Amino acid sequence: MTQETTLMDSAQYDRVFFFDIDNCLYPPNSGIMHLMKERIYAFGRESGLDEASVVDTCETYLRDYGLSVRGLIMHHKIDPTEFNAKVDGSIPLEDFIKPDAELRTMLKAIKTRRWAFTNAGKDHAYRVLKCLAVDDLFEGVTYCDYTEPDFPCKPERMAYNRAMSDAGVSDVKKCYFADDSTKNVEAALQLGWTAVWVWPSVDDTRIDKAIPQIKSIHQLPEVLPQLFK
Fold first, then answer.
1. Is the domain of 83 the same as that of 60?
2. What is the CATH number of the domain that holds 54?
3. What is the pLDDT of residues 91-103, one digit of tens each?
4. For 130-146, how does the pLDDT look when each residue is reduced to its tens digit (9 = 90+)?
5. pTM
6. 87 & 101 share domain
7. Domain final residue, candidates 53, 71, 93
8. Among 71, 93, 115, which residue terminates a domain?
9. Which of 63, 151, 160, 170 has its CA 20 to 30 A from that of 120?
C-alpha cells in the first residue's frame, strides 16, 4: 500500500504487527457496530428470515460462524455482493470516523511491518483505514472475501494462517496482534503470536488476566515498548 514499508531495513522489520480494524483502531462506542447490526437484521428480513427470530438467528450465526453474513450465505444462499452493498457499503463511515493523528504517530513509530487483519469485507476495511487517515501506513489487508465459499474468519486458525501467508511471514514468534475480541486474542496466543487485548473496560470473567490489556490502541507502546522507536 505504501513505498515506506518497502524501504524498511529487512533485519529490523522482519516482524509483522497484525492490527484488527473495527472496535480496535477506533473506539467501540463509535456507533458503527450498532448501525451495522441494524443493517444486518434488516437484510436478514429482506432475505426471508422471520421478524420474530431474525435477531436471534443472526446472533447465532455470529457466534457459530464468526460473522452473521457467513451463516446467511451458508443457510440462506444470499447474494454476497448485495449484502456488501446494502450492509457494509451503506454505512456512512465518514460520519463516525475522523482522521486520528495520535494513531498515525503511533503506527509510524512501531518497529515492525504493519498489516491489517479484519473479519470485515475488503471495501469496508479500506474505507475505515482511509477515514482514519492511516491507509498509507499498512502494507496490506487480510479481509473476509464474502464471495469465497465458506471463507475463514477469526478466531479460526485458517484465518491466522492466511494472514501470515498474505503478509509473507512464516515464524509465529515474529507475529504480533491487537484485537478487541477476547476469542481472537486467545486464538492468536494459542498459535504462538504475541497478542494484546484492546478494550476500554475490564471484565475479569472474559479473559485471562495474564494477557496484556489496553483500553485504547494508542496505549500499545506501554505494553510492547520494545517495538517502538
1. yes
2. 1.10.150.450
3. 999 999 999 999 9
4. 999 999 999 999 999 99
5. 0.90
6. no
7. 93
8. 93
9. 170
